[in-house]
Structure formats: C-alpha cells, structure tokens
Amino acid sequence: MRELITEDFAPLAADLDSRVAAQPGYSAQLAIYHRGRLVLSHTAGDYLAGDALACVYSVTKGLASLVIALLVQEGKLDPEAPVNRYWPEFAAAGKGKLTVGELLSHQGGVLGVPGGVPQDVLLDSSKYAAMLAELPSYWPLGQHIVGYHSLSMGTLMEELVRRVTGEELKDLYERRIRGPLGVDAYLGQPASLEARFRPTQVVNTPERFLDPFSLSGMSLNSRAGFDVDQERTHGQAGLLAWANKPSVRAAGPASLGAVADAQALAGIFAASFGPVPDLGAERGLLSPETWSQVSRERVFGIDRISGRPQSFALGFAKGTAGNDYGSIFAYGHDGANSSLAFADPAYHLAFAYLPSGPEGEVDTTTGVLLSQHARTIVKGRARA
Hints:
Blueprint: E1 4-5, H1 10-21, E2 28-34, E3 37-44, E4 54-55, H2 59-73, H3 100-104, H4 119-122, H5 125-133, H6 152-165, H7 169-181, E5 185-186, H8 215-219, E6 226-228, E7 231-233, H9 235-242, H10 246-251, E8 259-260, H11 262-273, H12 288-294, E9 299-302, E10 309-312, E11 331-334, E12 340-344, E13 349-355, H13 366-383
Antiparallel strand pairs: 1-3, 2-3, 2-13, 4-8, 5-8, 6-7, 9-10, 11-12, 12-13
Helix pairs in contact: 1-13, 2-6, 2-7, 5-6
C-alpha cells in the first residue's frame, strides 16, 4: 500500500499515528478517496507497513453485497421477491414468504445448524446452503426482527448468486469488480501472495461461555468450534484465528474470507458510486438509483445476537447512533478485527480502516472515530 498524505487530510493521518502510538505493538492502515481521488493512504506501526495484506473479516460481506447490487441493477435479482423464486428449496419449514431483502438484511433467522457443522462444510458453500435451506427460522418472520448471521450470511449470498447466474460469487466479484480495478482485495487469496499476508493478532478477545444452542452460539458454529494450531477453539476468538488459516483464505468465503489492504477496500467503494480515474473506472459500478436502493435501511432494532442496536440494508451494514460511521446514504460493513470500509455518496467519500487486531470492548472503535474526523475535514473543505 503506497504512502500518500495530502495536506487537507494530514490531520487524520496524525490522529491515527497518535492512537497507534498509545498501543504498543499495534498497527493499522487507513485509506480515503474523496471525489474519486486518493487523498490519504497511510500505515501507522510496522506490522502492516509496506505491501502487507490482512484478513478483513465481515468487511467481506460488504464486498459480497456489491456483487448482489450488480445483480439488482441488471434486473436479475429482485429484493422484494420471495427467496424461493430463485431458490425453491428455501421455502422449506415455513420460509416461503421470506423475501430476498428480508433475508439479506439479517431478518431470516437462519443462523446456523444446531450443534454446528464441521469446518469443511463451512467451506463447502453449496453443501452448507442446502442444510440452511431445510431449517426453520429461529424467530417469527415478518416482524422486523434482526439478528446478525455471522457465518451463514455469506453462504446465503453465495447460493443466491449461484441460482441467479450459475457462477460462484467470488468468481463474479473477481471478473466484475476486483479484476477490472486491479486492486489488492481478494475473495480467495492467491498462493503467490502468501509472503505479503500478516495474520490477525488475536488479542482483546477472551474466551467466554457461549451456549452452543443459543442464537449466538449457532451464529458462531460454537458447538463444532474451529481447529486452530491443533486445538479446538470456540466463539469469537476461535473465529478470528480460523480466518487466518491458509485453507480459509484460499476458499474466500463471503462471510469473512477476504484478504486486502485498506487502499484497495477504499478504492472499490469509491468506484462503487463514482468515477475513479486512477483505477480505470470511468463511471460508478452502481448507478445513483441502484446504490440508493441497495443502501436503503431495511431493518433497525436490538440485535438478537449482540443485544445492541443494529441496522442493515441489502447485505450492507448501516450506521447507528452507537456506531456512527457515515451518513444515511453510507453503505459498507465492519469486521470482527475492528476493520471498517464503506462508501458515503453524501460526502463523495470512500473510507477503509484495517488494524492488526481487534480493539476489544470499547465505546467507539478507532475506525468509527477516524470516519467521523474524515467527515469533518470534508465538511470544512466544502465551506472553504
């Protein structure tokens, strides 16, 4: 990731430097595009310096949602249609009226298989999708109940893409998004890039009791757990470590498997809504009508998994009062390692923050604070 600090955004780079300096051993990448131009690309700390790539966890869902958005734009996928129009088997166990929009905004209640599944099944998207289709929802449908589908959401998106296009989501992403832009954000990391990969530093994630038959436990596959370094781990810490494994990164599951640097993430989101000449994008991947449609909030409420207020659009996460990273027009996603990447057409802004590891339980993450600082800079420029 090349270093670039423009004058207007230098205070934001200094802000990141001061935050990283206060946490010995911590490192982070920050990148911002404004009006289609790279205005900040900065790494603080040594761990993620140079050409380093890292897992982005559920920021992957934001990249996968851009693929979904392209299918909506082309009329191949209707968010208001029942899922079973495209995937007939999904109507099983009383889910026949569930719409694509409800499913992809985490209202479907199809969190995972009770008792969990082996890890090879988690990486076999077609097989896992067939198992999920047979399940009932874990809560009443049609009542705007929201609950974060940590692992299953990627599989659900992958199966919808297969049913609509006959292609794998990661292949469509490579052909339509990453490849044309030529950026380092991969769904399925090539083995040739292994020397650039930096494992997530799994800190600030103590193991806690997680009932494997609770909604949270099923969402994190906690009964089956994850094999990491010849040990069986469970919960969030196990999930963080599991995503570092070469087999997971090579598979590139849409739930958490992307590997990238911050500049690539910001570039993709910048190109999603407007021209980015340096990346060869003459126009946005999505029309204003499309990004407005797919970024519209579809649900807001207390998340059945985390117990915190949560809001989702069509696959994309939305900002809330407690997670204020963008305007009402912003669309993107955050990740379990405290990463954050999004587009905000209201500010002509694309933002990506990628740290070396999770921050733990903090009131406001560094990524959100930096995104707020970025908006104040853009507002100041607009008044000048």
